[in-house]
Amino acid sequence: MTDKQRNAPKRAKSANAAHSQSGVIHVNEPHHDNFTVVGNHLAQHPELSLTAIGLAIHIQSLPAGSPIGIKALAAKFPEGEIRIAAALRELEEHGYLTRARERLQSGRVTTRTTSYNKPRLAMAAAAAPPSESHPPAPKAPAPTAPPSHRTAADLLSGLRADDSRLLLTERDVKRLAPAVDTWLERGVPVTAVRRTLTSGLPEDPIRHPAAFLEHRLATLLPPPLPVAPPPPTPLRPDPLQNCDGCDLAFRAPAPGRCRRCRATVGEVA
Q1: pLDDT one-digit tens code per residue, 132-167
Q2: Residues 193, 265 share a domain
Q3: What is the mean pLDDT of each run of 10 residues along the chain (269 residues)?
Q4: Residue 66 resides in a domain
Q5: Do 190 and 251 belong together in one domain?
Q6: What pLDDT was estimated at residue 3?
Q7: Domain of 195, in residue numbers
Q8: Share of the chain above pLDDT 90, in %
């Protein structure tokens, strides 16, 4: 009689088990305080860069009123102002941020940023579901670029009108626009940015206009505007006092005699 067939070697079984456990292994502990809920639509976004995803999560974790301007974020992280500006632009394009430029009474221009923990289109769809008696409303258009970024793109695209050697591709315009936004956020007028990029051009051919402009935007970047000092406190007048001599009211820091009574007492003395 022949021997019975034995089972497959244990080596193969262990190999299959190891293969089934490949990839990430999660060790999850519940959070009871000091945590932020982040949707997978952001954490696993197929189009956002890792810089943009991380920046969005950081912004969502901050308390309301925290400064999240490009300069404030660059002071916290090593990416630098240009990469942070590009990441903010990504979040704007996908509806996680809006930035509106406002001019204060002091004349200083500031940027008001609103963070959304869900894309704006998804929030709008959840807030206004279509009625059963009416056909579903058409999809809202994707959020457009803020005026500052559109201005930056227009400025860069129009440089060729000043000098044909500054002709940029559409890809170059998108890459350099965040750097121009940084200038605008620092209160530099559009005309001044354009003058900086087009004045004093070399006589030799400019073989790489995008690199030439990127160098100027980085090396000539002005510092942020200083914070305006608070207005001086107005001087308060002395309180009213009743004169000890004639009982008339007069202003003085402490009770006593009015000027006329003091003069009379001086003449008598």
Answers
A1: 444 555 554 444 465 556 788 999 999 988 889 999
A2: no
A3: 50 48 84 86 89 90 86 89 87 85 71 82 50 48 55 90 91 92 89 91 89 93 82 81 82 86 67
A4: yes
A5: no
A6: 52
A7: 153-200+209-222
A8: 18
Sign of the CA dihedral 205, 149, 140, 52? positive
